[in-house]
Every structure is written in C-alpha cells, then in structure tokens.
Amino acid sequence: MCGRYATTRSEADLSLLFDATSVTEALGPSWNVAPTDPVPLVRMSQRHGGRVVDAARWGLLPPWADDPRAGARMINARAETVATSRAFAPSFERRRCLVPADGWFEWVRDGRLKQAFYMTPRDASVLAFAGIWTMWREQTLTCSVLTTAALGGLAEVHDRMPLILPRERWPEWLAGGGDPGALLQPLTPAELEAIEVRPVRPDVGNVRNNGPHLLTAAEPVAPAEVTLF
C-alpha cells in the first residue's frame, strides 16, 4: 500500500504543471503526508470548464459512510478491483483525479528493525498518482490513491506501489469512462527505471515529523540484510 508520501509543490506550481486553475487555499508543503491529511489533487470541473487544483481529505468516504474515521482505511483502492468495488467503482467511472506527489515511502522489515525507503523520480519531476474522489455529505471532498502490483526493483521493497500515470495518460484518466484495462496499465520497464529507491532515516515513521530532512539519503539500519538499488 501507499500510506505515506511527500507533496511539496505550491498550488501555483501545480497549476502550471497540470495546466489547471487553482480553486483552493494554499495547503503548504508536506514531506510526510499521512492518512486523513488534506492533500492537493487535480480533477475536472464543469463549473470552471477544465482542470482544477483542489484540496481533499486523503481517505475516500463513500456517501453511505457514517463515520469520517472510516476514511483512514480507504486511502488506497486496488487497481484490480476498483472498477467493481461498491465503495470505489462509482468514483472510478465518473470522478477520477490525479494526486501530485514528489515520492512515496515504504518500509522493509528485518527482524525488529524497519528500514524506510523513499521512492522518487531521479530527475525530481512531479509524480501523478492515479486517484479517485467523491464528495461526502455534500461538504467534504475526499480521495483515494490507486495501487497496483509493484514491478522490477520496487517489488523488493513492497509488493504494492501507487499507480503512476505518465503525462500523456492524464487526459484519458481525467475524462471519465473508458476501458479499465487500458486505464489501469502499470508503468513500462523504462519508466520504472526512472524511479530512485533511496534509504532514509526512520524519522518518517512518526507522523509528527515533517521537513525536507526526511528525504535525505541515509545509511540503512541493517546494511547486510537490506537490498539497495
């Protein structure tokens, strides 16, 4: 799963990168986004006639959810079942979005030790996670990030990864409808090679920690046991 990530670009920068209009107040950068945090997303808006940068609570809340705390369990939607899931299918069909990110975190356990890794583009370009959104009780915008089976070297860190969409796939994803098989294609081997897997300090494991130091490369806690890339 993807349970922590970094998103540090301003709404103005995201507007330029995604050719969108910002319709939200500035959230500020976060190097340690956690479930239920407010996060930026890019979605289509009929009112504004195109793409908008908006803010949503991370953890999708279906209209029938009674308790907002349920969103903490719905931060991710599996690509394999998103088109048929009662909770996610309506949003997958009609309310898809892009979730901008700098990179994401996963952990490898070695006995009692856990090594944190940060996955990020080698060229520091923006990532666009495939996302879905919905409005809960007509007042709270919420979202989930789609995940897929990890491939290549990324699978040695975790068996799941965010579904990442290259720029040329953004229009089709945001349009709604379409063939699920084509929409949910994973990255190509060449695109996967462009992602660095970086060992980082364990500080990111505490949601109270935030700041660019969390992304700094660090010696792994168990170098004899943890695979580096």
TrEMBL record:
GO BP, sorted A to Z: protein-DNA covalent cross-linking repair; proteolysis
SUPFAM superfamilies, per database record: BB1717-like (SSF143081)
Database matches in Pfam families: SRAP
Keywords: Covalent protein-DNA linkage, DNA damage, DNA-binding, Hydrolase, Lyase, Protease
Enzyme class (EC, first level): hydrolase
Superkingdom in the source lineage: Bacteria
Molecular functions per Gene Ontology: lyase activity; peptidase activity; single-stranded DNA binding
Keyword Hydrolase among UniProt keywords: yes
The protein's Enzyme Commission number: 3.4.-.-
Homology family: Belongs to the SOS response-associated peptidase family.
PANTHER family: ABASIC SITE PROCESSING PROTEIN HMCES (PTHR13604:SF0), DC12-RELATED (PTHR13604)
Protein name: Abasic site processing protein
